[in-house]
Amino acid sequence: MDLGAQLATFTTIFLGIFIEAAPFLLLGTVASGLVEVFVRREDLIRLMPRRALPATLLGAAFGFAFPVCECGVVPLTRRLFSKGLPISAGIAFLLAAPIINPIVIASTAAAYGWGPMLFARVGIGLIVAVTVGVIFSFNRSPASIMLPRTAGPMPIMGGSGEALAQPGAEPLRVRVQRALRVAADEFFEMGRYLVIGSALAALMQTLVPQSVLTSLGAGPLVSVLVLSALAFVLSVCSTVDAFISLSFVNTFSAGSILAFLVFGPMVDIKSTMMFLGVFRRKIVAYLILLPLLLTTLIAVFINLNVPL
Question: How far apart are CA 17 and CA 82, in angstroms?
Fold first, then answer.
C-alpha cells in the first residue's frame, strides 16, 4: 500500500473512531456537569456504604444508571471522585459502566439475543470491575492515584475563570447554565486525549492489518490474547462492538469473543490516553493489566470448560 493510500486509510479510520466516540464523550461531560452542580458531596458520601465490598458493588451498579461508554465515563468518574466517591466504587464504576449500561446491554441483545453471550458479558464485566475495585480499596486516598491537578475538589469555573459559589437557592436555569459550562470545559479538556487516542488507534490499524491478528487466533489462550489485543487496537465504542464481534463467531472461540466484549470496553487506546489525563502512570498500568489478567483467566476457563 503506497503512502497516499495509507494516509487515506488512516484518515478514514481516525474520523470513524472520533465521530463515533465524540457524542458519548459529550454525554459523559454533560453528566459530569450535572453531577457537579446538582449532587452535593454530603449526599453522595451518605449514600455510599462504609465497607469496601458493598461500596464497590454499589459503584459498579451505578453503571446501569449512566448510558456512557468508555470515553464518557472517564470525566464522569473524575467528577464523582471530587464529590467524595470512594476509590473502590469509582474504579468499579469506571470499568463496569461501558459494559453494563442500558445502551450496551440493548445492542448486545440485538446482536446475540437474550442468551448466554449477553449474560456472560454482563456477569464477567461485573466480576472484573468489582474485583479490581476491591483491589484498589486498599488505597483510600484519591490524591494518591490521580494527577495533582485532577485530585481533590474541582471548582466550578465561570467565564472569567473565577470559582463560583456552591449552588444554594439559585434558579434552575442558572444552575443548568453552570452545569453546561462545566460540561464544555471538560469536553475540551478531555477531548484532546480522545483525539490523540483516536489517532494512535487509527495508526495501529493502518500499519498492522487485522488479518495479521486474526491469523493468530488459534488455541484457548492465544485466541483470547489476540482478540483482547484487537479490541485494544480497534478502540471501537462499546455501544457497537457487539455487532463487530459477530464477524469472529465462526473463527474464534466463545471465550475469546467474550474477552473482546469485556476487555475492549474497559481499556482501549483512546481510553488509555484519557486515563493518562486523570490518573498517575502507575495506576494506568494497573487499570490495563488487572482487567486484562482477570478477563484472560475467565475467558480461558470458559474456552476449556464451558461451551457457549
Answer: 29
Contacts of 12 (CB under 8 A, 6+ apart): none
163: which strand partners?
Answer: 157
CA 240 – CA 243 distance, rounded (Å): 6
The predicted structure's pLDDT at residue 59? 92
Cell matching residue 60: 459498579
- Spatial separation of the C-alpha atoms in residues 67 and 63, rounded to whole Å: 8
Looking at per-residue pLDDT, the higher value among 43 and 165 belongs to: 43
Query: Residue 23 has what pLDDT?
Result: 81
C-alpha cell at 102: 442500558
Domain that holds residue 37: 3-305
Q: Which helix (H) or strand (E) holds 35?
A: helix 3-38
Q: φ, ψ for residue 25 (rounded to 5)?
A: -65, -45
Number of domains in the chain: 1
Q: What is the pLDDT of residue 153?
A: 52
| DSSP 8-state assignment for residue 163 | B
40-187-161-78 Cα dihedral, nearest 10 degrees: 40
Q: What are phi and psi of 163, to 5 degrees?
A: -75, 135
What predicted TM-score, i.e. pTM, was given to this entire model?
A: 0.79
For the chain, the 3-state helix, strand and coil shares in percent, each to the nearest 5, are: 75, 0, 25
